[in-house]
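Team,

Forwarding the record for the chain on the shared tracking sheet. I've put the sequence and predicted structure together so nobody has to dig through attachments.
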Amino acid sequence: MIVITTPTGDIGSQVLRTLLESAPASGEKLRVIVRDPARLPDPVRDRVDVVAGSHGDAGVVERAFAGADAVFWLVPPAADASSLEDAYSGFTRAAAAAVTAHGVGHVVGVSALGRGTPVADRAGLVTATLAMDDLIASTGVAYRALANPGFMENLLREVRSIRDEGVFTGTGAADRKAPTVATRDIAAAAARLLLDRSWTGVGSVPVLGPEDLSPDDKARIMSEVLGRPVRYERQSLDDLGATLAGYGMGDAFVGGMVGMMRAKDEGLDDGVPRTPRTASPTTFRQWCEEVLTPAVRA
């Protein structure tokens, strides 16, 4: 039995879809934890065991983890959390106890790059994520943290600006190259680990994408794919914080986001070399063709 959290989210839904496709051959039974079961498509709901509720709730994870062999773990964003510790480790604490109580053998979690870098202890959301990894690992379960850079899908938040103004924003220098990953590749890595549970101990699995790109590189590729000029505008960290606060996000989340972006500008994502093991296949150009273009044209 594999338990999937966030089965209607971007990454979780792709993990679930991959596992459903493999289920006839693998024989794996699947269980999902979902706040609103009605959001699951009927063909999916008919093929999985559904536990309704939040996976931050002790009663919910107690029910969901009973008889489970493996868990896909992803903490949803908590823009109104009182602290980053509450948002990540606090949310995960009940699940960690349930992992121990029910003898779950393997957990795969969505995490971040940065462990071992000089800025990891002041990287806002990433620092909190790494502490969550440590909490899960402390249970003694076999754990793999998917260590990710920024997601290509983050650009979907700026579809309107890209379409109407030909502009996207960020806090990094225009020529600073960094890894970026498509969520489909994160989901694929998670599904592989959940299906092949021969691994033991605690470790990190970087998912780096196939290339490092600067914001200017991305602007060039987007311009070519979309057939219209797209340019990058750098914003200050103060402006980022003000924008997030203007959306009604809480102080802890805003500070965590600003801290993470500052750390990325200082090399947070630079500590892991790209190798055949750490690279993932989806190029930014391919993602722009298959995901961004339809979103811009919608």
